[in-house]
Amino acid sequence: MSKGFTRRLTLLGSAMALSLGVLASPVQAETINLSYNGAPDLDKNAVHVFASTLKSLVEKKTDGELELKLYPNSMLGGEQERMEQVINAPGLNIASFAGVAPLIPEIYVSAIPFLFKDFEAARQFFDEGDYWKNVQQVFSERANGAKILAVVEEGGFLAFTNSVRPIAGPEDFEGLRFRAMDPSQVALYEAFGASGTPIPWTETYMALRTGVADGQMNPPMYIILGSLYEVQKYLTLANIQYSDQFLVANGQLLDSLSDENRKALMSAVHEANQMARVTNQAKVGERLAFLKEHGMEIINPTDANLEALRTQGQPAYLNWLTEEQGIEQRWIDMALEDAGMTKLAN
Q1: CB-based contacts of 117: which residues, under 8 Å, 6+ apart?
Q2: Is 298 within 8 Å of 237 (Cβ atoms)?
Q3: What three-state secondary structure class fits 345?
Q4: Where does the signal peptide begin and end (predicted)?
Q5: Distant-in-sequence, close-in-space partners of 2: CB < 8 Å, separation ≥ 6
Q6: Comparing C-alpha atoms, which of 287, 265, 112, 254 is closest to residue 191?
Q7: Quick one: which H or E segment has residue 94?
Q8: How far is CA 4 from the centre of its chain?
């Protein structure tokens, strides 16, 4: 065999190997950042449960063409910073009211105290109601085309906690000082004869430990996540507000996806949300049992006490919506109709 023929065979083999290598190499995945609050803890953080499930489903449904990279613990910035990022650059963000409300304060209407009696009522409100469809549309118009894709449960309904005495009805709040998440909670506490001071979540434990605040309100998940059971004695189950956050997607990102991958993403969001809801609801009893085992006294108000809380608390919140936030009455009326309520306490 001549040296020239051998050389030609070698070159041909190299070319074939290179060609096969190109054909066999996997398609380069498009990486999408997903940012959110809270620790990457599947046992304690319901938002992380949703994010992890969404990551798996997106990658499976797109055959690896889309890949989610998770950024828990606000690694990409605080609420406002992350919202600016998702409005202006490709990515996903799970935002709280603090992130979304500056763009659409009308979202506070969905947090009217004692609006929902249970999970089923709250989920139907967001899944099927006209109010929420209008919120999504207006948000997109104000947020450079970004879209709210899902309402993500944080871990149940908010509960009152405090370290002074059991709370069953409005009269038990008199003189107590509470940590508030935002001004709407301040208005609610004041309606009950207590005081409220906005305190960041990161400072809540120390505020409760040092007596700067006597109490706060959060779902059992966050009470465990923040170890608040160490500095709080009493927990009142009043289904105050449905605890939720909001999955927001950059508009240009959605537009850039192929029809097939966009449909796969939306399908994954829906499926991940349904799965996370099941997991979240199943853990409510377990979380309450944990808090009881760690020394908290669980108070279940009577129907009469719940009605008294509603009657006294709702007008203050409604006044805050219209007077302080400038919310038009039509948003409130629309939400009440979707919630199956003809009117609120007045």
Answers
A1: 239
A2: yes
A3: coil
A4: 1-24
A5: none
A6: 112
A7: strand 92-95
A8: 70
CA angle at 27 for the pair 21 and 33, rounded to the nearest 5°: 145
pLDDT tens-digit profile of 44-72?
889 999 999 999 999 999 999 999 999 99
The H or E element spanning position 60 is: helix 46-61
- Phi, psi (rounded to 5 degrees) for 168: -120, -35
Other CB atoms within 10 A of residue 100 CB: 22
Quick check: 234 and 162 in contact, CB under 8 A? yes
* CA dist., res. 147 & res. 90, Å (int): 12
Pairing outcome for strands 234-236 and 30-35: unpaired
DSSP 8-state secondary structure symbol assigned to residue 1: -
pLDDT in tens, 160-203: 999 999 999 999 999 999 999 888 889 899 999 999 999 988 89
| Distance of alpha carbon 51 from alpha carbon 40, whole angstroms | 9
Q: Identify the DSSP state of 29.
A: P
Rg over alpha carbons for the chain, rounded to the nearest Å, is: 25
Q: Which fold has domain 29-338?
A: D-Maltodextrin-Binding Protein; domain 2 (3.40.190)
Q: How many CA atoms lie within 13 A of 179 on its CB side?
A: 28
In which region does residue 155 sit, left (phi positive, over 0), alpha (psi from -120 to 50) or beta (all else)?
A: left
Using a cut of 0.90, tell me whether the model's pTM lies above it. no
Spatial distance between the Cα atoms of 63 and 146, rounded to a whole number of angstroms: 25
| Cα–Cα distance measured from residue 214 to residue 228, given in angstroms and rounded to the nearest whole number | 12
DSSP letter assigned to residue 171: G
CA distance linking residue 278 with residue 345, whole number of Å: 32
d(CA 241, CA 21): 57
Using CA atoms of 89, 95, 99, 105 in order, give the dihedral in degrees to the nearest 10.
110
Q: Where are the alpha helices (DSSP H) in 294-328?
A: 303-319
Tell me the C-alpha distance between 169 and 182, whole Å. 22
**Tokens describing residue 102:** 């500056």
